[in-house]
Amino acid sequence: MNETVDDEDRLAALHSYEVLDRPRPPVLDDLTRLAATMFDTPMAAVSLIDRDRQWFAGRVGLADAETPLDVSFCAQMLPTRRPLIVPDASRHPLFSTYRNVIEAPNIRFYAGAPIIDEDGHALGAMCVIDSEARQISDRQIDTLTTFAGQAATHLSSIRGRMRLAGLGDDLARAAQREEDLVATITHELRTPVASIQGYLEMLGEQEELAPYRRMIEPIHRNGQRLVAMVDHILAGTRPHDAPLPAPVGPVDLNTVVTAALTACRPLTVLRAEPVTVHAGLPITVRADLARLAHAIEQLLRNALLFTPLDRPVTITTTADEEHRAVVEIADTGVGIPEDEVTHVFDRFYRGRFARDQAVPGVGLGLTIARAITEAHHGTLELTGGAGGAVARMTLPVLD
Fold first, then answer.
1. Verdict on whether the full-model pTM lies above 0.85
2. How many CB atoms lie within 10 A of CB 305?
3. Average pLDDT in the 183-210 region?
């Protein structure tokens, strides 16, 4: 199928998802945040190409909800349906004249993979963007293509839920109501914070304000922490009967673990003893990449926070004797007192080691991890004594 921006069938398919001009779906914002973290870029987006604009159905680091097509890198992928990699846009014969290259956000590096739906229509692209020129490996391109596939499947799930809700399906209506509520809350919070962050970045670039950068940076960092904390509380306090979205598409479990490890980089770089990863052969699971990575991130974060910096933490991926996928995170930290083991998955529960050592957190990480694991039809167990703890996540393998 060779489609252009104005292809009427393609546009009809795009509009059938009913995400344009609506609050951004939280699952797509989650996906873009994870992509930006994995690729270490300040900007990422799920860009949908309309007739005369690109609409960001998920975005991070980009101030605008949409832009005209005359500055769209993503639109160039519609005819080719292949990933587009631009190491340095300022040297590219086409993109060097784009306004978003010459002016803010001063795009240099761009990498995108086309979002192609189940009917074969090219809807747009999943992209990561940087203001610094850089290269990307073939393996990273494959990972970006996986992200684009996840975006396509999320869009399909959103459309399916909306159609079911329109037909009166109570479960679909409940899921859609909750997603709309979360989208509205995050929009109302993120819009002002994103504006504040953007102005702070502009101030940080002013040479005459260089003496004040040490004050600007903490404001910027704490703005990010504020948004992350609200997301965390929203994820951990959802009603018990509120359905989590089902796992969406095939993903290599090792890719999920890599994403979780990357998200924990601020903690791992402080360690004298690095995190050891024993990655087995590729194991394909059906997963919501962003949510499953978030679950593993919570388990890894716990292990890192409760283990001294000079002691080992190990992550192992394998398949067990029943042909199930397993992620095991083992630490050599303070462990879990026997009388607390039955409470560790309770909401807002913080054990005495967390209180005594002033470990940051609100006691929702393990609650979130278990809910996400169970939504993926898996199990999560946590065991430990005085010599450390082991978190074991088991998931069905996709044949």
1. no
2. 19
3. 67
